[in-house]
Design brief:
Blueprint: H1 22-38, E1 43-45, E2 48-50, H2 62-66
Antiparallel strand pairs: 1-2
C-alpha cells in the first residue's frame, strides 16, 4: 500500500500492531519489484517456474562473482 492509495488520510494503528520503518518497507518493495522484473516472461509449470524459450540468462546475481 502506498501513500497515493489514501491521499491526505492518516491511519492510526493500535499499539499492539507491529510496524516497520518506512525505509524498510521501501527496501522490501524495491527488492520485490526487482525480482518481479527478473522473472518477467517465466511461466509456471507444475509448481515450478519454466525459463522462457531461447534464454540462457543466469538469474543468480552470485553467478557473476563466480566467473
Amino acid at each position: 500500500m502506498n501513500r497515493e492509495s489514501f491521499p491526505g488520510k492518516v491511519v492510526r494503528l493500535p499499539a499492539s500492531v507491529k510496524t516497520v520503518p518506512p525505509e524498510s518497507a521501501r527496501a522490501l518493495e524495491s527488492a520485490w519489484r526487482r525480482r518481479w522484473n527478473e522473472l518477467r516472461g517465466w511461466q509456471p509449470s507444475g509448481g515450478w517456474l519454466v525459463e522462457p524459450a531461447g534464454t540462457d540468462k543466469d538469474l543468480d546475481p552470485r553467478a557473476e562473482a563466480r566467473s
